[in-house]
Amino acid sequence: MSKGTVVLAYSGGLDTSCILVWLKEQGYDVITFLANVGQDEDFKAAKDKAETLGAKKVFIEDVRAEFVEDFIWPALQANAIYEDRYLLGTAIARPCIARKLVEIARREGAQFISHGATGKGNDQIRFELSCYALYPEVKVRLQIPEFYNRFKGRKDLMEYAQKHGIPVPVSPKAPWSMDANLMHIRWAGCIFFLFLKQHAPADLYMMTKNPEDSPNSADVLEIEFKNGVPIKVVDVKQGTSKSSPLDIFSYLNLIGGNHGVGRIDIVENRFIGMKSRGIYETPGGTILLKAHLDIETFTMDKEVRRIKQGLGIKFSELVYNGFWYSPECEFVRHCINKSQENVEGKVQLSIFKGQVYILGRESPKSLYNEELVSMDVQGDYDPCDASGFIRINAVRLASPQPAQSSLSMELF
């Protein structure tokens, strides 16, 4: 008798293929779900493999459009960057995938969900927190002693795959793991990632060219924003344009990737406490971040933007740690979205040899006053007022300061 139905977030790789067969061994009916979030994938081959391995049903869902509109765009509005460098491509995709996973689980009456995320990484937390938030009654059939006692590492998984006739996709020429979606590609998992001094292999990158091999002439783009998100991109040289969210992002990936934009090699702090090394390629996201920062700065009030910057940092931490569906993240997203009401206009930029250069900008909501900042026109500004402003701010600086030693003694 079946122990119940599990919906497995399936990729077709070593881990999830072994998990599929193992769950069946344990007595579960397994439904697999593969999300198309923009990765280069043979979806038919993955479907055929899942059916061959015994999946009761196989769902493949194209969620690219909602990934851009519901997840990437809010991250762009927030200027979301984790620890000053990482644009959160994997972290943003997880709640998108989890939402569809839960939708299928509810529709199919499944009591359980499962995934292939490692016990040491962030993704297990992101998947499970999202699923519990959206489907509180669901249970996870993976993070249990029976599984970890059986599979202590990739060697055990490889042996299990060979024993059960599961095709192994990892080749000796490409031993690293890859997480790919429309937003980025993340590289990790190879032995060289453990040695921080060792440079990444030149043939590792797939989404971006080496900037040295990129075109010798720049591409010039104009990106139009409304409410803090792009609504149109124009290729100035080609005279072509894109206007749907998915088309805009895909085109910026193409242009940015061709010029080697968006490569980073970083060490980051995982939510569970350990540091890890990752290499990321985020071409389109990097272009949009540069453009959005520019349009936002001259259309948003200074103090509002100062508060919004703090909210952006908080948003990035919440998303990285898996709390997209938490009440605090919903509140922060609402506040950030409110801040974007006047972030409207056009930014002209060039893409060249791994860099994004801002060329100019315009906006009907601009707070920039040409007359006020002019060195040749006084306008409504009285320079004499600056003297009083400076004297007031100097009061604190001109006051006697206690010696550091005496201050330390008083404190202790």
TrEMBL record:
<keyword id="KW-0055">Arginine biosynthesis</keyword>
<feature type="domain" description="Arginosuccinate synthase C-terminal">
    <location>
        <begin position="176"/>
        <end position="397"/>
    </location>
</feature>
<dbReference type="GO" id="GO:0004055">
    <property type="term" value="F:argininosuccinate synthase activity"/>
</dbReference>
<dbReference type="GO" id="GO:0000050">
    <property type="term" value="P:urea cycle"/>
</dbReference>
<dbReference type="Pfam" id="PF20979">
    <property type="entry name" value="Arginosuc_syn_C"/>
</dbReference>
<dbReference type="InterPro" id="IPR024074">
    <property type="entry name" value="AS_cat/multimer_dom_body"/>
</dbReference>
<dbReference type="InterPro" id="IPR048267">
    <property type="entry name" value="Arginosuc_syn_N"/>
</dbReference>
<protein>
    <recommendedName>
        <fullName>Argininosuccinate synthase</fullName>
        <ecNumber>6.3.4.5</ecNumber>
    </recommendedName>
</protein>
<dbReference type="GO" id="GO:0005524">
    <property type="term" value="F:ATP binding"/>
</dbReference>
<feature type="domain" description="Arginosuccinate synthase-like N-terminal">
    <location>
        <begin position="6"/>
        <end position="167"/>
    </location>
</feature>
<dbReference type="InterPro" id="IPR001518">
    <property type="entry name" value="Arginosuc_synth"/>
</dbReference>
<dbReference type="Pfam" id="PF00764">
    <property type="entry name" value="Arginosuc_synth"/>
</dbReference>
<dbReference type="InterPro" id="IPR023434">
    <property type="entry name" value="Arginosuc_synth_type_1_subfam"/>
</dbReference>
<dbReference type="GO" id="GO:0006526">
    <property type="term" value="P:L-arginine biosynthetic process"/>
</dbReference>
<dbReference type="GO" id="GO:0005829">
    <property type="term" value="C:cytosol"/>
</dbReference>
<keyword id="KW-0963">Cytoplasm</keyword>
<keyword id="KW-0597">Phosphoprotein</keyword>
<keyword id="KW-0436">Ligase</keyword>
<keyword id="KW-0067">ATP-binding</keyword>
<keyword id="KW-0835">Urea cycle</keyword>
<keyword id="KW-0028">Amino-acid biosynthesis</keyword>
<keyword id="KW-0547">Nucleotide-binding</keyword>
<dbReference type="InterPro" id="IPR014729">
    <property type="entry name" value="Rossmann-like_a/b/a_fold"/>
</dbReference>
<dbReference type="GO" id="GO:0000053">
    <property type="term" value="P:argininosuccinate metabolic process"/>
</dbReference>
<comment type="pathway">
    <text>Amino-acid biosynthesis; L-arginine biosynthesis; L-arginine from L-ornithine and carbamoyl phosphate: step 2/3.</text>
</comment>
<dbReference type="InterPro" id="IPR048268">
    <property type="entry name" value="Arginosuc_syn_C"/>
</dbReference>
<dbReference type="InterPro" id="IPR018223">
    <property type="entry name" value="Arginosuc_synth_CS"/>
</dbReference>
<comment type="pathway">
    <text>Nitrogen metabolism; urea cycle; (N(omega)-L-arginino)succinate from L-aspartate and L-citrulline: step 1/1.</text>
</comment>
